[in-house]
Specification:
This protein has helices spanning 3-7, 11-19, 25-43, 98-106, 148-155, 172-178, 210-220, 250-263, 277-303, 314-324, 328-351, 379-389, 394-399, 427-439; strands at residues 46-55, 66-70, 109-114, 126-127, 131-132, 134-135, 138-142, 161-166, 181-184, 202-207, 233-236, 267-270, 356-360, 403-411, 414-421. By secondary structure, the chain is α/β, with parallel strands linked by helices. The strands form three sheets. It has an eleven-stranded mixed β-sheet, with helices on both faces. A two-stranded antiparallel ribbon has the order 4-5. Strand 6 and strand 7 form a beta hairpin. The two termini are 39 Å apart.
Length: 448
Amino acid sequence: MTPDEYQRLDATAIAAAVHAGEVTIAEIHTAATTMHERTHADINAVVEWYDDPSVGGDTGPLAGVPFLRKDYGSTEAGRLQEMGSRLCAGVRASTTSPMYRRLATAGAQIVGRSAVPEFVMHGTTESIATGATRNPHDLSLSVGGSSGGSAAAVAAGVVPAAHATDCAGSIRIPASACGLYGLKPTSRMIPLDQGDWGGIAVEFVVSRSVRDQRRFLEVLADGTFNPQRGALRIGMTTVHWGGMPMGPGMVDGLERVAEVLTEAGYEVVPIDPPVDLATVMRGWDAHFGRWVALDVERWAGATGRPIDDTTLEPITLRQLEQVNATTVGQLSADQLAADRALAAMDASLDERGIDVVLSATNDIAALPLDYMSGLLPDMATYLERNDEFFSSLFPANISGRPAMSVPMGRVGSAPAGAQLMGRRGDDQLLLDLAAVVETAAIATVPLG
């Protein structure tokens, strides 16, 4: 198998080639290594490439499939996990997480670690510790975050799929920015022994095909999925959920996805943004900030390093200041208000018979480098820029609903994605809808 042949295959095809005896696992690793070496200087997606990959075997559903571990979340015993931060330089995991035990049983080979922003805080993958990860489609653009290293490597053909986590869109943001498929599963569907940040965090993968999303879900997920339903009503929003302008081409892309789904027999109706975003954001901030603070305190204690600008980036330090200035009563009030807003969203969607919400994943397709990283000097600018790009992502995390980004076209050099958000347990349904969009082959069609 040549590197050029290898990079055209998805995980399902690679496993089939191994099962058929057409290629060895070692030959696949060699091809993946060549692709990494070809692309690394440009995209900077991988923080460590394994010369000694962790190989699961040649008989499972992911036999020989090269896979990158995101440098945050589930772990491999004895391997580095530095979380994009100078605070955690040299940290090694003591245990192997359930996710990686399941991948080993399925036959995957873990070939390295992918880049993340510091403590997976950002919608871009840029850090002092490992530098900026750049988009294979346009090196002047960000890959999004926080699973940006994984998305860049998949988009560049280094691996067919890679580990991703999502507590505020971190699977979906880079999937959209890199033209990939990325499902945020229903909350607690996939075991996460490192903790799930109070229910808002999930782990899964980004991939180049929908069938790979389905295969990894079969390998990794627990629980019961909702039965498939016949007639579906999809509510489409074509405005920014926070009232800001939408980026060029995004409405065109959503209308194209709606047309594809309508032609496939689904009912698509226009709706307003289904939730009070400002209230949900306060609840999400209450969740997110305290878990970042606990991470920092944990690793400062474990490494003996100080919590200051020698180990942490400016926005991380500002986040800690905000957490320390917030009372338990205020945190609880914000979370309660968000829960009530989401209950109102559920009731409103149910009343109108809406099964799935269709929206833009990222409200603006092109994510510039140096625009929203942890290196910004003040929190106000950072939050304003995040609000500009990401408005429909957080409700799925707080509510536990599954949500998926699917490619819907290109704005100039930048891929753009549509988000499908379903009811809890609707993961397979979202994959079915994504497969309809995939078959329509609109991922590279110009928008705007």
